[in-house]
């Protein structure tokens, strides 16, 4: 019985000290960083989201499709290196909207995002179509890419 009480008190003390550390870790507002990221007073900003859909073209040649996908991934990397695309990835399950993947572009201009998505070889070939939406999210979102490179052993 004493052991259970001791363990319970130890656990409670650990939780309370963790909560106190978390409370003390609250960071202060960084105006320079907020300005550099284009953040509004909430730390947010406008982006443009592109939902890739199943396109009208059917490519049965596996080698051709492989080349298109290789170009698709290379284009994503190029746009990321240029700071234009900050999120990209496929959906893991089929869905009724036929969404295949998504991009979040670092622009609030739908026209600019459309120019960028049209540089994708798979879009050009009609393998993917797309829908464009304005989106509002954390202005710090582009910062994750730097850390992604630190945690990925391989690139597709």
UniProtKB/TrEMBL annotation:
Pfam families: YCII (PF03795). Residues 63-135 form the YCII-related domain. InterPro entries: Dimeric_a/b-barrel (IPR011008), YCII (IPR005545). SUPFAM superfamilies: Dimeric alpha+beta barrel (SSF54909). Keywords: Signal. Residues 1-19 form the signal peptide. Belongs to the YciI family. This is Uncharacterized conserved protein YciI, contains a putative active-site phosphohistidine. It comes from Chryseobacterium oranimense.
